[in-house]
Amino acid sequence: MVTDTEMKIKEAMFKPIPGALLFCVSTLALAQQADPAPTPSASSSTGIPQAPSAAAGPVTNELTTTLERTWTIKPRVTLTETLTDNVAINRTATSKKSDLITELAPGIRIEARTARLKGYFDYALRGQFYAQTDNNQTQNSLNTFGTLEAVDNWLFMDFNGTIAQQAISAFGAQSPGNGTINSNSTETATYRLSPYIRGQFAGTVDYLLRYSLSTTRSDGANLANTDLAQWVGQLKGSTPFQNLRWTIDGNQQTSEYSTGRKTEAETLRAMGTYTLHPQFRVSLSAGRESNNYASLEQETHNTHGYGFDWTPTQRTQFSAFKEKRFFGDGHNIHFSHRFPMSSISYTDTRDVAVLPNQFATAGMGTAFDQFSPAVAQRCTQLLQQLLGDPPTQSQIDICVSSLFTTLTGLQPNQQVVSSFLTSHATIRRNQQLGFTLFGVRNSITLMATRNESQSVLATSEFSDIFGQNNLIRQQGFSLNFSHRLSDLSNLTLLASRQESTGTGTATIKTTMTMYQVNVSTKLGAKTTGSFSARHAQFDSTDVPYTENAIIGTLSFIY
Questions:
Q1: What's the number of CA atoms in the CB half-sphere (13 Å) around residue 137?
Q2: pLDDT at residue 22 above 80?
Q3: Which residues face 455 on adjacent strands?
Q4: Residue 375, φ and ψ in degrees, nearest 5
Q5: Binning pLDDT at 50, 70 and 90, where does residue 334 land?
Q6: For labelling, which of 4, 74, 534, 546 has a CA lying 20 to 30 Å from the CA of 193?
Q7: Quick one: pLDDT at residue 467?
Q8: In the chain, what are the domains?
Q9: What is the per-residue pLDDT for 167?
Q10: What is the mean pLDDT of residues 135-151?
């Protein structure tokens, strides 16, 4: 018997939406009915008549489990074979060596969606074995993030962790893949715990008090390990003037480096915000900051700034804030707009940074953050249409996450420009432009990034990369095209380019260009396979290289 939901799905198939997206939301709809005895939850209270679970199929059953269980545990194992014509990219061009790399990577992903805990844990141990080179090794890969609500609507705990391969120098050889032998790459890990409380005084003043403790460790010798402790406090309230609100926030941060000196920074700021129009408000700030970044002693400076927030529609946001700081002008600019099947965003920030880009942020990362807004709106609309009730945030997140790798071929925490390790705080300006576009069978993702890093301290104090370069500029782009060959197979094309320039005692410049084509298909209910071809070229006055590789991957999720 054909259920009402299945009829709605068939009707929706004639609308101009991506097939993978339709498939995902359709299986989500069927998943609402698949369990004959659903547990009481927001995801099962749609009132849709139940259908036999057999009608859903293995993929639907998998999504049913994801939706209805508060805990989801998915072990996996991945086998990758890489045939490369340049396994050790630090060699000279005349000493290239080909090799066959076998990588066996058992892993596990745990997701929690309980009333108090929401988060995920994704870990893999990569064992890499070389047929021609004595360089067998293991690598860890971790991406985890979560929030625990310890006391109802008052005490919370955020946590995140990342383990990834990190470039040591911005001007050393950049790795085209994890299996490449590269002395300029090292395993780096960052872990962070952040308890905080939030609430209201007398129902009129909002308060927040947060403590964060993070540690960053690198395997490479003579590389900086970083310990960061931070207190953040904030008070927000209204005034007798209906459109005027005030905010007071304070920040105290201590950074300790294994190969550098300890630094401390404190800021105290008061801000007033006036709403000129429901969609437009302006802000003014004044405060003081004290730090020992540029000297051995604490130096105190006055700060002041101004900005605005403009939200002309629910799909458009534009905000800008400029502030006079001890290093000059700092700023934070953000613009985003969502079209029905695409989105565009731009961010531009200038501030003091103590960690590389890859480890300074928490969550899914650059690629996923750009992808999510464009698809979340469409997932919400279709789930509403198919389920009859407003979807929960958990259902929307599952829809978006299920589509990410399928439609883009990217990793969630993929960065456009690889950062580098340093021994102290830097003044960093980050600019990023992102655009995503989805059609019936195709998707395009464009990300462009430009970073400028400048040492806050005198360059003679350290022997790291800033000892010879007082300004390092990195810029690059990543263009991804994905085509759905069938309901089970996808074709993705990737082109990326990164350029690093250093200015100081001498000007140095390196460029990394890579092209890759990938075909992936579902071989069974729990098995997927892919085949890739890659070309990489690194231009440098030191050790340039070219590399070509073909990669075959087989993954099984239990």
A1: 13
A2: no
A3: 426
A4: -95, -30
A5: very high
A6: 74
A7: 61
A8: 70-363+413-557 (2.40.170)
A9: 86
A10: 93
